[in-house]
């Protein structure tokens, strides 16, 4: 296939249009008021790459501008994209590193355009250098998180790097750098580059959307006041825990916790203090939790604690520890100090089978037993 069939000028135009479109896509999504910082780096980085590519395609401007300056701006843009990726991966890229990445591009391109002019050397360098930067971007994302989330972006950066690398390699091997139009490799890479750019833009937006959806999903299962699970979260995680425990024939215990005379606390000190009591209770219980245990706010001032692989006697000991800590620790808010207590009902799958709903209602009954017996105590059911 002759590269002329691919019409190099048209492909170049397509490449610039796609760069502008993907830039617009990234800028538009970054304009959303709560856009994460990485998205803004990607948008600014893409703008810089677009500007650099446009500068590089002006034949009428001095050679320093269409080589050194345009290469510098493209490298700067890629470094900003890399910074965004590092921010996404909870890390960063210093301004010194960004300056070094940019300076290398400017200096080498300036050397081959002003010092020792060589179009071939300049094109080789740009192919290899930009390929390397894209592969560093691919590696930064690939190391972090799952392929389902970042696979498209990694593929895009890898593909773009490969197209640029082949372009550079082609210049080393046999091309006449002044005669791009006759080269199949150049034509094909001009076709692959916009494809990879679209891949990268969609991949980056997908990464952010996925994280956003994850955050919403997590928030929808959490109680906003105490950060314990809410009932929806308990249903999902509790069921999973029960299935795991049943399969492994492990006992599972449920502790129902209810603040004593909470209405009196609210009425005497006000709702903000009542809220602080609930937050305090959740904090105290969380200290006792192992990573796979679950705490949920069941309603008002009632909490459920599900302990995996724990028998009734051990669960009673945990409940007793939590009860004692609650009794000892005072809650302070706005110069007010309040002491409160809680009653607890403890039940275990050994006595009541592997059924979350049944265990919760049996635990509730045991907890009311504790209330009837005088509150501030633990009752086993
Ligand atoms: N501050 C605050 N109060 C809440 C919240 N949810 C429910 N309540 C209050 O919790 C109180 C529960 O009162 P009751 O059901 O009578 O229970 P109690 O006073 O703790 O009495 P016993 O359980 O018998 O010890 C009610 O006054 C509700 O308004 C909340 O999120 N914050």
TrEMBL record:
UniProt cross-references to SMART domains, sorted A to Z: GGDEF (SM00267)
Species per Swiss-Prot/TrEMBL record: Duganella sacchari
EC number(s) per entry: 2.7.7.65
Residue ranges crossing the lipid bilayer per the database entry: 12-32, 41-58, 64-82, 94-114, 120-142, 149-166, 186-210
Catalytic activity from the UniProt record: 2 GTP = 3',3'-c-di-GMP + 2 diphosphate
MF term (GO), any: diguanylate cyclase activity
Protein name: diguanylate cyclase
Domain of life: Bacteria
InterPro entries xrefs: Diguanylate_Cyclase, GGDEF_dom, Nucleotide_cyclase, Rev_trsase/Diguanyl_cyclase
Keywords: Membrane, Transmembrane, Transmembrane helix
NCBIfam families: GGDEF
EC primary class: transferase
Gene3D superfamilies: 3.30.70.270
Entry-linked PANTHER family: DIGUANYLATE CYCLASE DGCM-RELATED, REGULATORY COMPONENTS OF SENSORY TRANSDUCTION SYSTEM
């Amino acid at each position: 296939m002759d590269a002329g069939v691919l019409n190099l000028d048209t492909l170049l135009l397509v490449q610039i249009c796609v760069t502008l479109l993907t830039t617009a896509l990234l800028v538009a999504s970054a304009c959303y008021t709560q856009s994460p910082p990485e998205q803004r780096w990607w948008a600014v980085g893409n703008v810089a790459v677009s500007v650099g590519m446009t500068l590089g395609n002006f034949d009428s401007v001095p050679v320093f501008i269409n080589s050194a300056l345009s290469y510098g701006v493209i490298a700067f843009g890629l470094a900003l994209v890399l910074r965004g990726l590092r921010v996404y991966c909870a890390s960063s890229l210093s301004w010194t590193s960004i300056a070094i990445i940019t300076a290398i591009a400017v200096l080498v391109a300036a050397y081959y355009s002003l010092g020792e002019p060589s179009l071939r050397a300049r094109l080789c360098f740009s192919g290899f250098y930009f390929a390397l930067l894209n592969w560093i971007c691919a590696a930064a994302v690939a190391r972090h998180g799952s392929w389902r989330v970042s696979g498209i972006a990694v593929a895009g950066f890898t593909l773009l790097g490969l197209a640029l690398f082949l372009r550079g390699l082609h210049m080393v091997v046999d091309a006449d750098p002044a005669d791009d139009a006759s080269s199949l490799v150049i034509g094909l890479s001009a076709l692959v580059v916009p494809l990879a750019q679209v891949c990268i833009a969609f991949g980056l937006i997908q990464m952010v959307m996925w994280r956003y959806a994850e955050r919403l999903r997590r928030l929808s299962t959490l109680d906003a006041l105490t950060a314990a699970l809410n009932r929806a979260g308990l249903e999902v995680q509790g069921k999973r825990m029960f299935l795991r425990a049943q399969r492994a024939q492990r006992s599972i215990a449920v502790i129902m916790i209810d603040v004593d005379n909470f209405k009196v606390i609210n009425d005497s000190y006000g709702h903000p203090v009542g809220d602080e009591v609930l937050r305090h209770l959740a904090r105290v219980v969380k200290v006792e939790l192992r990573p796979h245990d679950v705490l949920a706010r069941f309603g008002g001032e009632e909490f459920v604690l599900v302990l995996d692989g724990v028998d009734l006697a051990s669960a009673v000991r945990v409940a007793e520890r939590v009860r004692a800590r609650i009794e000892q620790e005072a809650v302070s808010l706005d110069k007010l100090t309040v002491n409160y207590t809680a009653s607890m009902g403890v039940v275990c799958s050994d006595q009541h089978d592997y059924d979350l709903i049944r265990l919760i209602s049996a635990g509730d009954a045991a907890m009311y037993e504790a209330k009837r017996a005088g509150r501030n105590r633990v009752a086993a059911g």
